[in-house]
Amino acid sequence: MSNIRETPIPTVTLNNGVQIPQLGFGVFQVPAEETQRIVEDALEAGYRHIDTAAAYRNESGVGAAIAASGIPREEIFVTTKLRNGEQGAALEAFRSSRKALGVDYVDLYLIHWPVPSQGLYTAAWKVMEKLYAGDEVRAIGVSNFLSEHLDTLLQASDIVPAVNQIEIHPTFQQRDLAARSRSLGIAVEAYSPLGQGADLGAAAVQSLAARHGGTPAQVVLAWHLAQGTIVIPKSADGARMRENLGAAALSLTPAEVGEITALEAGARAGADPAVAAHSQL
Ligand SMILES: NC(=O)c1ccc[n+]([C@@H]2O[C@H](COP(=O)([O-])OP(=O)(O)OC[C@H]3O[C@@H](n4cnc5c(N)ncnc54)[C@H](OP(=O)(O)O)[C@@H]3O)[C@@H](O)[C@H]2O)c1
What we know:
- The protein has 281 residues and is α/β, with parallel strands linked by helices.
- It has ten helices and ten strands.
């Protein structure tokens, strides 16, 4: 494999023309007090796309790292998300996130979960459409939206979400939902792309890693990248965050992509969006 630093991270063009680095860095479960240091490490390693959320309670650490890095703001793509409990106050929630991040604009703002039992996501989207008309956000999208939630949203709105961020990894691929999202012009972003580490021991992953002189995590991330999916692996460890960035240098043949695709096992790691309410988020 070629040197990590020599391999540029590909970008995906969203449905409004905005470009997003295809390989980003997630900060779910990164403790608030460690976030600045870890995100500074990630930026130093070469990441230029950070995925946070109001619910992760670490937006201010992300913002502090961006400010301390000295990297021009426009070179870093920042995503944050609307908390479930604030779908009825989306404008205030957005402003609070933007303030915590210490930025003039957010690159991508997502509805974190549909929470269908609340019946508020369409109203929240209307507010996000108004925000999008201003200059505080470059793209708006959704997360954890199933086909039925996309249908409801699209019937009631003018703007097609730029992104649907959903759980995808080799043992839980949601292929129908990913295909449906793409057919609507919505880019697919994989969260828990490594299956929270659980998919790395699969024999097919291990043998492809040996064949390519890479690591299991690089093989899994390369499998996502080969399908045009945006990925946001999380690692609190400097060596592993660099290792994950190295996935951009590993290319799998279509047959090798198929070997990983064959690992589908319906093994959801997170919550089911049809019923998840997550009041704590
Ligand atoms: N929208 C949503 O509802 C939602 C839900 C979940 C996640 N997300 C986003 O997606 C991001 C990633 O998802 P995730 O954190 O759930 O899972 P993940 O990225 O699939 O896996 C993270 C786990 O894998 C380990 N790991 C990372 N790189 C590794 C490597 N190279 N080798 C071995 N182990 C490795 C990490 O441990 P170490 O930290 O010790 O390296 C951590 O335990 C989150 O941070 C968040 O931004 C969004």
